[in-house]
Design brief:
This protein is 31% helix and 37% strand. It is α+β, with helices and mostly antiparallel strands and 304 residues long. Strand 3 and strand 4 form a beta hairpin. The radius of gyration is 31 Å and the shape is elongated.
Length: 304
């Protein structure tokens, strides 16, 4: 290899190395610039939600017993009215700051029953979300929590939630995650009331308990509740047993829809006939179905 060729190769390598160094320095400068820009408002995140309570110890215990919040810190600070206290509690990554001040005042308009609670300017409720609202609602009921409403859709087919109160009456709204709005959440399509009604009637006319059980598990919610003149039934298995006993008492009888189906929001109402083939309308009645996200959550039965 001659000296000119060697010199050319060496110069090329040097220029490439220098170019890489320049690009690396530019990249580092850009990264530092971006980091610097993102350290301000663009770096914000939620630290906690703060509200005043009547009794700090009782509130700490309530949030611990109901939601499993743990006490992180507790402190005292001075305000013109005297000594105030603050407690930071945390559960599932969410921090709450509970405050207690001397002579705290309750503004009744903020605690009005919905929807009147929306009128005053200010915070309305603490909003949480869970994967299975029915299960969460059962757990809250077992803990003796007071419900404002239970498992209702705020709009048709979406925003399924239960609202509860803490010991001071502060409202806590709990949504089922897959029914809320968001870029990755598809709207829940409302089920045709006639399809739901006919499926319901078919189940009550099915004499094979095993086949019926499969259909019940698909159509009724896990915490289904039946209120019938002959008693109250809770749960899918209990419903299956109830229908088995009913059909055993009236062999050969079947249910049919009588007339039109009425519906609004998540409520379906219709009249029915129950009887044998030669007298299909021997017994008459009315069913009122309460639905949630395509399932029947409760049934009210009236016999004429």
């Amino acid at each position: 290899m001659n000296k000119q060729k060697t010199f050319t190769l060496g110069l090329t390598a040097f220029l490439l190395l220098a170019l890489n160094n320049v690009q690396a320095q530019k990249k580092t400068t850009i990264m530092k610039h971006n980091i610097s820009n993102n350290a301000g408002l663009e770096s914000f995140s939620l630290f906690n939600v703060a509200f005043t309570v009547t009794d700090l110890d009782k509130s700490i215990n309530w949030y611990s017993n109901v939601f499993g919040f743990k006490l992180l810190s507790r402190s005292t600070f001075k305000i013109p009215a005297g000594d105030a206290e603050a407690a930071i509690i945390e559960g599932n990554g969410l921090k709450l700051e509970l405050l207690h001040v001397p002579d705290g005042q309750r503004i009744e308009a903020l605690f009005a029953a919905p929807p009147a609670h929306l009128v005053p300017i200010g915070n309305k409720s603490l909003v949480l979300q869970v994967d299975d609202l029915a299960q969460a609602s059962r757990e809250l009921e077992a803990k003796g929590v007071e419900f404002v409403w239970r498992e209702q859709n705020l709009i048709e087919g979406q925003m399924l939630c239960s609202m509860i109160k803490d010991i001071d009456g502060n409202k806590i709204n709990i949504f089922q995650t897959n029914t809320t709005f968001g870029p990755n959440v598809a709207p829940v399509k409302a089920v045709d009331p006639s399809i739901l009604t006919n499926a319901h009637i078919a189940i009550w006319s099915e004499y094979d308990s095993q086949k019926r059980k499969v259909l019940i598990d698909k159509l009724y919610s896990t915490d289904f509740r039946l209120t019938d003149p002959n008693g109250i039934v809770v749960g899918r298995d209990a419903l299956n047993e109830f229908i088995t006993e009913l059909l055993a008492k009236y062999p050969g009888y079947t249910f049919t829809v009588d007339g039109s189906i009425e519906t609004h929001h998540n409520v379906i109402k219709f009249n029915w006939n129950f009887g044998p083939k030669d007298n299909p309308a021997k017994i008459k009645g009315t069913d009122v179905l309460i639905t949630q996200t395509g399932s029947i959550n409760s049934l009210l039965v009236f016999i004429k």
